[in-house]
Structure formats: C-alpha cells, structure tokens
Amino acid sequence: MKTPIDFLSETTSPERSYTTDCPVWPYLSYYIFQIEKNLSQLCEDDEAFKSAVINGFVTNLAARITNAANNVLITEKLVFEKTTCNKVETPAYFTLVSENKNYLFEIINAYPELDRVLTKLSNNFVEFTIQLIKAFVDDRKDISTKFNIPTGAQLSAIEVSSSETHNGSRTICTLSFDSIKVIYKPRNLELEAEASDLLLYLSNAAGDDYQNWKIPRYLVKKEHGWSEHTPQTQAESEDEVSSYFKRAGFLLGYCTTFMATDITSDNLIAHGSCPIPIDLETIFYSTLNIDTIPKEVRWNVTQTSILPNWTWKGTDGIGVDLSALGGLSEQYVSLNLYQHLEDENGHSQFGMDGVKIFPNQNVLYLNGKPALPWNYEKEIIEGLNTLFSVVCNEKASIIETIGSLRGRRNRYIPRPTATYHYAIQCSLHATLMRCTKKRTAFLENILNNDTAPAIGFLNAEIAACLDLDVPFAQGQTGALEFYEPRYDGCGYLDSNDYINGIDNSVQYVKTISKNRIAFEEKLTANTLLAMRNMYEHGNKLTDHTFIQHDDLNDPRYSSIDAIINKIRSSSEINSKLINEMLSTEISSNGLWLGFHSSPGGYMEFSELGDDFYYGLSGILYGCAVAASRSSAVDNDCYSRINQKLSNKGTHLGGFHFGLSSAIIPLLISLDYFCDERESELLELYKRYVEDVLTEPWWQKFFWGSDFLSGMFGTLNVLTHLFSLTKDSHFSHLAKSLYEKIETELSPIAGKKLTSFDNAVTTRSDALLSGLSHGIMGCAYSLFYFNALIAKKDSVNELFLGFLSWELDEYDEAIENWHDYRKRSASSAGEFSWSHGLPGNYLIIDYFAKNGVQQAIDFLAKNPSTTVFSYCNLEKRKRPINDSLCHGAYGILNIIKKLSPESLNDPKVFLWSNIINLSEQNSKALRTKTADPLGLWIGRVGALIGSIALIEHDYEFPFLPHQMKFLK
C-alpha cells in the first residue's frame, strides 16, 4: 500500500496534476491518488464533477496540512539559516523545501508525529470525500426537489469550510449549482430542522413584524443532511434594520426559553431584515442546577451567546466579542499563542503572540457600515417581550412540543471550543511533533483539569485533538450522557449538579413570570449598554459628557473650600446611591450582576465576581472603610470565597484579580465586622496555595507574572498576610512561591528579569513598564518580600536590577514612561495609578523613604513637587472618569500623598475634571449610564477617593503594605 512518502519518488505520481505551493505536497498527491481510485466507481466518467470535487477538497486540505506543518517548517527554516548563514524569506524557503525532495524527506523523517498527523488528515479527507459523494449521488433527486435546482443543473464547485473539524476532519461543505448553493452537513439534522420549524411557527404567531422570516429549509437524512444556503446581505433601509433587531430580540427570547446556546458570530447570518440561525444543534442544552446558585444565574439571556459579550480574555483582562450580535470590527485577543510570526520585511521567527479576529457574516450592514445593536435596544427588547408573550399565551402547547422533542440527537460542548483550538495549536510545537507519546502527554496536561464539567470524556478529547479535531460530544435531548462517535469516548454530567435541557426548558416555560421577564429585559438592556461603552471606548465612558477644555479659571471654584464642598455634596449623594444599589441591585440571594471594567476601561455587565479590583471583596472593603455596611455582602462574599477555596482549579491570580486578590480585603472586612470566620478563611487559603505550589504546572493558576493578576501579585498577598497576621506559614509559602518565580526569570538587557506575554507588549523582549502590568510592580513585590521575609542580598540584587531597568525607561522628552501595551493608543504614555508616572512615583517614593539610593537619586533629579505641579499637569491628558485606577480620584489622591502642596492650587482640581465628574455622581437617574459599583473603577472607589480628599487623616492604600486593619 502506498504512503505519502512514496510520492517523493520520481516514478510515483497521481494521474491528475495539481499545481500547489503547499510545501508538504506529497500528502496532496497521496490524497489525489487515493480518491481517483474511488471516483470512477462512484460517478462514472463525469470529468467536470470529478474536478469540482477534487479541487474543492484539495484546496482545503492544502491549507490544513500547511498550517499543521508550519511550526516544524519554520523551526527547520531557522536551522537552515544558521547552518548556511543565509537569511531566506518564508515563501522562498517553502519553495526550496517543496522542490528539494531529499530535504523534504529528511524533515518528514525527523518528525514522525508530523508524518502521522498529515497522513491521518489525508486519509480522513479521502473518507470524507467518498462520504459526501455517496450522499450526493443517493440524495440528488431529493436535493433538486427540496431546493428547486433546475433539471440538468450541474455541480460547478465545492467549497469545504475552513472552520473547525469534527469526527475525522469532517466539516460543512457548500455545493454550487450555478447560482444556487446548498449546504452539506456531515451529521443528523433532525433536531436542527425541528428547532427551525418551531422558531418559524412562533414567529408567524407573533404578528406581522415577525412573519416572512427567512429560515433555511432542511433535507434530513440519517447520518447527514442538507440545508438551504442563505448569504449575508446588507439592509436596504433603516426599516429593515429595525425589523432585523426586533427579530434578533425574538430569537434571543426563543434561545433563552428553549435553552439554545453557542449562537455565536459563526452561527448567525445577517440577511437583510432577517437574522438567520444556522446551527441550532445545541438547543435544549444541559445547564447547572445547583441550589446555591440563583436560578437566574444558572440560565439567562446572556448564556445564549447572542448578546455582545467578552470572552477569550488574555492576560490584560480584555477579551473579544464573538457573539451573534457583536464582533463588529477587527479585534485583537491577547491570549498568548506559540506561532509563526513574520515582520514587515518577511523575517520569520517563532514566538508567543496574540491573534486578530475579523468581522463575520453575522454583522448587519447599512450603507456599508455595521448597524450597532445598542442603538436598537428598544427593538431588541420589543422582540424579546413578544416571544415571551407568545410563550405565555401558549404554555400548554409549547410544553407539549418540548416533550415531543425528547430523545433527539443534540450536541453538548464540554468546554469552550477556544480551549480545544488553543490546545491543538500549542501541540503543533516542533518539539512535540517528533513523538506521539510526548504530544499526547502535553495535550493531557492542558486538558486534564478540574474545571471541565464532563466526567469521563478526557481520553476522547485528547484523541480528537491529536488528529486536529475539536471533540464532538453527541447526546440526546433530555439526557445528561453523551459520547464521541469517532474517538470512542463517553462522558456524562453529574445529575446532582446539572439538569437536562428538556426538563429545564419545561420549568422555564411553566414558571415564567413578569418578574423573570423584567429580569431578562434588564439584563439585555445593561449588556447592550456595557457593550456600547466598550465599542466607544476612548470617546466617552458614560452618556454624561463634559468639556475637555473648559474654563480652568472658573470663578465659582476659585477656592479650595468651594471645591471640597462640591466633592462633599457629591460624596453624600454617592453614598446614598451605593446603599441603594447594595440593597436593590445586589441581591441577598447571591445574585450579583453589575457593571465592571478592566484596567483598560473596557466595560461589561455580568456577575460581579469576587475580585478586589471591581468585585465583591473590593466593594465590601470600601463599604467597611466608609462604614456603610450591607449585611448581605460579607456573608455571601465569604461563602463564595470559601467555595472556591474548596474547589481546586480557580486561578490564584494577583493582588487585584483572582482568588488571591479577595483574601486581604475580605480578611480586613471580616475583622472590622468582628466576624469569627477569619481563621477559617486563612486556613483554607493556606491549603489552597500549598496545593497550587505542588502542581507540576503551577503557572496555570496565574495570569502571567505581573502585580495585578500574576504571580508577583500573589507574592504580595502572601507577604502582606504575614505582615498582618505574623503567621510564619505565610512566610514559608511566600518563600516557596519566590523560589518558583526565580525559575521563570531570564537574562534580558544584562539583567535577570521577568517577561510578560508577547500578546500584550509591543517590545521584542516582552517587557512592560508600570505598576499594574509592568516591571515596576514586580520590583515592589520583590522589595516588600525581601524587607519583610527573605532578607537576602541575592533578592535585593534582583530587586535592584528590576528597579534600574524601570528607571532607565523614564523618558525625559515626554516626562513619563512609555506605554508598551499593544492596546494602548497613547504614544506619550499613560498618566494614572495603573500605568505611567503617578503609579511609578508612588513606588519610587516608597523605595526612597526606605533608603534605596537609586530611588533617592531619581527623585532628586525629578522631584514630585515639579511633576505634579499645575504647570506640568497642564501638559497631560485630563482624566475622563473618576476612578481610583486611572481617573480623577486616583490622580488627586496620589498628588495628596506625593505633593500635597499642589492641592493648594484650585486649578489642579479643575484640571482633573473632578467638578464635572462629581456632577455625574449626583445623577440619581442612571438608566443610560454604565455605572460600576466596584472599588478601583466604580462608585465605591469614588466614595473612598472623595473621603480621602475631604478627610486629611485618611490615606487610600494604593499599595499592599498600606492596607491595615480598620479601627
């Protein structure tokens, strides 16, 4: 039997010639050779048909095997360049490989796993091609009838989708018959067709605005199916846009009622006035059913994936929008992926970097511009309510319909498909492509964690990813069991924790009420509002606008007393609003949904979480400081933390994000409220950290290495817990973590430094400047750890290396540090606590007061009184929000600490926009304002920031060592 390698021989070649620039062309030749043997038996002598089939499949296979071989080929390219001392561009090198058969043979022979994968893909494509041709020949008459294909129309082209594959490299295909196109799907479409019929029935019952909805027709067969092709088309008028979003709201209600998830940008087509769902196989999805989680959190409109949302979050805490109504523009996701990188000169290298994601066919355009869903909130909510109205009017018949669909084949998604994509891409690393056993172990290491809900499915997941397939968990509606049809794996969901989608949908319909509909409506409105702020980031963060260049000599605020009185008045109103939000918006049943923002100002609306930065522990800490307590917050926040500490798999993170970030603010708050659970909290945290530090892959519990959410941040937490409790156990844990951090450091620029994700920084050395994400924050962590615990010259030397690098980065031309984050729009650097001069000066001042000569010398040359004077501030970009992290209250409180005399100048306050922003705090009507409650960005932070300006004896703790027990 011939193998792909045999086609490197001069005497062996397929009958059909095919021109390709694929460097691993023998696998294409092998595919053509194998498929030609079968084609004559399946479709006689129809040469046009054969060409259409082979061209479609070969084009797709060429792209897939080139991508699979890419890491190996670029690695070999680098070896070639070093051994020949000759730089060569990637296309030229690929040509060299493809034309030099002996060289290509040596490469393939050196990477047995690569040969196995490429051979497997080629064989899978042979099977897939035969499967499609047989289905087409058998179904041709039915296809013509169902989709109105004229008699005599011939197959002119086949386009194999470039999207993810399942079940042995299977994916959807588009068959063209001149102007008519039909979609082939290599799976049973019975449930998808019935779900589409149900949507059509309900929309016709909803009235004129929802009738004539274009829904694809289906031809259902046992193991495959055909559907109508509907192209993306733009709206022709504003009326069509309005109709589109009414239907989108109706679809949102439909998917919520019938537990349909994964309706992402890949699975919706914008077709004029019709949003067309094209993949309803995940309808009646099994969901969590845990009593400790409110039912509204277990399932709601946001979990359909239709509403704009942020996922795939990288180390900068910012994700991408893959929703059915979102993804409106080019996006960058900072998930660090090992990949082939090429600069503008064609020079190649391998490294870690993020990826770009482009708009999909889900985006509706009008006059060439995307229609913004948040501008059509009214229409979306009208459609949502219309669906719920139809459901309420026809409860009995709908429940009967749901019951009739029990037992249909459906798909369960055990974990986000992004996890599989990430695992597969990383496993193509050249070192792993030499050995199947090592690559298998690598995939197991990535996929074997306690966060995946599927029980017993791991081996099937690994087997699928080995062959570059995304695992396909096939189940039945109304059941919690599923299996992998190709890779012989079975899994299930624990019936104590999950409910099947049929029963859950019946419950949803039975119990739907005005309150539940109002909740879904509010969730929809707030999600759209948050996403509007996200997409408009940089223009404004709320609907309250102010003049950037207003009168800094405003006579109304010519005295400090007048300004402080204004802040005091705003603070009092803000305090009342916070108490109202705590009692009404944060529920006593544990349902905590709200606005929150990343350090970059990117806003979203979802569960608040427990983080110090914008979550419950920070809110609780701020309320304790302000002595405005909500009895619900401390109890439930503690129970959430307790639960996470008892379930391995949660990120520790750093000082502001992750489980670690919640411990100190929660400890201080529990102490303030005389809560006896302090010791239990600390013991749980100790055990959790111990377990993490014994993990072989301990790094996965941190988002990188930085102060904000990385391992240096947790080092700060452990160090400060030792300071607060004098418990030597925390000292030992800090030392253990430091020893592990040491192994992560590498020589850079003549110093031993930690690097950051290439996906986040523009620097080739992967370094960043600043407090929250950069070297300065890590320098602080080292100094504090050494001063309190380590007390070693070696740690001090390491600290001085970090500090000297950061100080050397100060640019006198801009009187600031450059911002090297890829997302930063400012070449002159940020000016806030989190990034740039103010935060760095806080730390430098701390070092100087503790006798660090480099810091003393730096401040002598660049004194705080100068950089925070009004003359200097006038050159800076004025704050556009009132946050502590990167807004007005943060800047003013840093000035209070480092240059208090500057606050004697009213213009400094006016420059900060605090007067304009304090008016925003006074607004009781917040229906159109993305209004976070959190500490570092939000109302609680604004309250604490104002208290610190009003009360001279209170200083906000910007750095960990400043956080003390409250009196």
Quickly describe the structure:
The protein is of the alpha+beta class.
Structure description:
- Helix content is 47%, strand content 10%.
- It is an alpha+beta fold and 967 residues long.
- Strands 1-2-3-5-4 form a five-stranded antiparallel β-sheet. A four-stranded antiparallel β-sheet has the order 13-14-15-16, covered by helices on one side.
- α19 runs parallel beside α21 and α23 runs antiparallel to α24.
- The longest helix has 38 residues.
- It is globular and about 90 Å long.
- The relative contact order is 0.07.
- About 3% of the residues have low confidence.
- This is Type 2 lantipeptide synthetase LanM.
- Pfam families: DUF4135, LANC_like.
- InterPro entries: 6hp_glycosidase-like_sf, LANC-like, Lant_dehyd, Lanti_2_LanM.
Q: Write down the Rg.
A: 30 Å
Largest sheet: 5 strands, antiparallel
Shape descriptor reads globular
Number of strands: 23
Strand content: 5-15%
Helix content: 40-55%
Poorly predicted runs are: 537-549, 628-632, 921-928
Give, in spatial order, the strands making up the sheet with the most strands.
1-2-3-5-4
Let me know the average pLDDT: 88
Structural class comes to: alpha+beta
End-to-end distance, in Å? 82 Å
Number of helices: 32
